[in-house]
Amino acid sequence: MQHVTYIAAALTFALVGWGAFALVRAQSPGFNEALLIEGARGNTRMQDVAVMYDLGLYLNRQGYGYLMADLLPFNEDGQLFSVASGDARVARVLRAEDLFRQSLQEDPANAFSWLYYTHALLKREDVNTARRTLERAWQLGPTSAGLAVRRQAMVATIRELTGEKTAYEEMLRRDTELLARPSPLTGDADPSFKDNPSPIGQ
After folding, report:
1. Which residue from 37, 87, 86, 89 is spatially nearest to 68, judged by alpha carbons?
2. Which of these, 46, 65, 66, 163, has the minimum number of CB atoms within 10 Å of its CB?
3. Is residue 85 classed exposed, middle or buried when 0-12, 13-18 and 19+ CB atoms within 10 A define those classes?
4. Is the model's pTM score more than 0.70?
5. pLDDT in tens, 1-27
6. How many angstroms separate the CA atoms of 107 and 121, rounded?
7. Is 91:59 a contact under the CB 8 Å cutoff?
8. Long-range contacts of 3-9 (CB under 8 A, 24+ apart)
9. Euclidean distance between the first and final Cα of the chain, in Å?
10. Cα(179)–Cα(199) distance, rounded to whole angstroms?
11. Buried b / exposed e across 152-180, counting CB within 10 Å, b at 16+?
């Protein structure tokens, strides 16, 4: 009887493991071609293999490609990448927003996705929505130096668009303190702090 119990338990674990593996395959762009989408440069796959097994991160990276396309001058063949203007530029930003929203549905705790979404919104001067997404990014990643640098840029844009010269003072103060802290690896402050020790916009 005990032998039968062991066999049943082993089969149960095997079935659960296989089910989990099948679920991962179904939700991974690396396995499921139906999840692949065309990026700003026509690419559907990423060189970073880990991205291909994380749908939320995959959507994040594709969205970032659309968001920053005009700042990335070369395509995979080394040829100049066209700079969009007018309706084409707006379409890229809207596509980036859509992909960031999809990414956040998969991984709502990704602070970088919230901040990139903020960037896209500010490109369209949607300040009201951008405020909410910026604040969410700060709540999720208040101690990330990488996020702090980007947050300062977003705050500078909000101040410029609204004329509110003291907007997000507390956020800037904390981010400036964060960037001034010595790195545990190098013992130095963040390089961006050395270049600009005062909060952006002051």
Report:
1. 89
2. 163
3. exposed
4. yes
5. 555 565 655 555 544 444 444 445 556
6. 19
7. no
8. none
9. 77
10. 10
11. bbbbbbbbeeeeeeebbeebbebbbebbe
